[in-house]
Amino acid sequence: MNAEPTTLVDSYERAFPYLRLSITDVCNFRCEYCLPNGYSCDSKPKFLTLDEIRRLVTAFAGLGVWKIRLTGGEPSVRKDFPEIINLVSQIPGIENMAFTTNGYRLLANAQKWYDEGMRNLNVSIDSLNREMFHKITDHDRLDDVLAGVEKALTIGYEAVKINVVLLRGLNDDALDSFLDYVKQRPVTVRFIELMQTGDNLEYFKKRHLSADILREQLLQKGWVENIHVNGAGPAVNFTHPDYQGSIGLIAPYSKDFCLGCNRLRITSTGDLRLCLFGEIGIPLRDLLQRDDQIQELQTRVLKQLNYKKSSHFLDQGLTGLLPNLSSTGG
Ligand code: SAM
Ligand code: SF4
Fold it and tell me: In terms of CB atoms within 10 Å, which of 16, 30, 204, 300 comes out highest?
């Protein structure tokens, strides 16, 4: 971990050493809660180029960001994804680079991405039941995705996490299957409460379930809640001496969730989002065109950080600019 404190601190004294960078909106899956009708776009979007990504990450690293997550959409649909990994891994100050993927291309590419410098990954697997996985994602690819995770573990990725969006009536009975899965594998399975977005209100009402239900079950089964470290992000983690892996719960509707916020986001076209559910996107792209603009870019980011709000106000049904998570980068 970086000993240098980040200069990115907001008016609520939260520090932001972590940047989530979306590199594309495009996705090849149709997850029911995210892109039920698949990806579509009226005109060809112009996602950040390699040079723009280099300048952006260099500027944030200069402000004390040491952790980057590449996300999307599906980041691996970009043909230059290996080059992006290589580029970001070499930027001074970036000590931890991760990415979030639906796992579609993991089996074929895990080695290449590792060789380019990737060490940490989150794979989204909402069910270990093949039919249910197919229903939720519209892709009958569970076996391939699981084989990709095995491959990543064999190669030696340092942190392998599985994201599970908790869905009432679909996978709310899946805890035991995931506990079996982590018994012999050093994998963290993180259950994420379904979030309301601009596009999914009806789905949200039908499928949202509080993660409290899993917390109770874990405690009953002898899992222990780890002490939460300040600035470690919003997940609450549980461990058990008989299991190699661990379980995390991410409950955005819980009280004080935003107190632990440690991340800023950049959209695939270069807007800064102070919050996933924020009302405004702050364009940065005009300051990503030349290497001599980096200082001006840093000044703009620092100024805007003062406007970061204390909370997402999701409990009041406010979803800001977010139509779905693929559009801002989940
Ligand atoms: N396509 C990649 C994937 O699915 O892993 C990366 C982008 S996806 C938007 C990032 C994460 O957000 C995934 O784990 C996904 O399950 C989660 N996600 C998407 N929509 C969500 C929602 N409405 N509520 C909670 N999590 C959501
Ligand atoms: Fe695609 Fe990820 Fe959204 Fe699923 S959750 S549709 S894989 S962006």
Answer: 16
Burial of 249 (0-12, 13-18, 19+ CB in 10 A): buried
Instruction: Flag whether the pTM goes above 0.90.
Output: yes
Confidence of residue 234 (pLDDT cuts 50, 70, 90): confident
pLDDT digits (tens, 9 = 90+) for 3-34: 456 789 888 888 899 999 999 999 999 999 99
DSSP 8-state code for residue 64: T
Closest ligand to Cα 165: 1
What is the whole-number distance in angstroms between the Cα of residue 69 and the centre of ligand 2? Answer: 15
Distance 9 CA to ligand 2 centre (A): 30
Ligand nearest to the CA of 197: 1
Give the CA radius of gyration of the chain: 19
DSSP state of 90: T
**Domain assignments of the chain as residue spans, ordered by start:** 18-327
Ligand 2 centre and the CA of 133: distance in Å? 13
From 165, 189, 203, 210, the mutation candidate for ligand 1 (largest count of ligand atoms within 8 A of CB) is: 165
Q: C-alpha distances in angstroms, 185 versus 159, 177, 188, 206, 311?
A: 11, 13, 9, 33, 35
Does the 18-327 domain belong in CATH 3.40.50.1260? Answer: no
Residue 315 has pLDDT above 70, yes or no: no
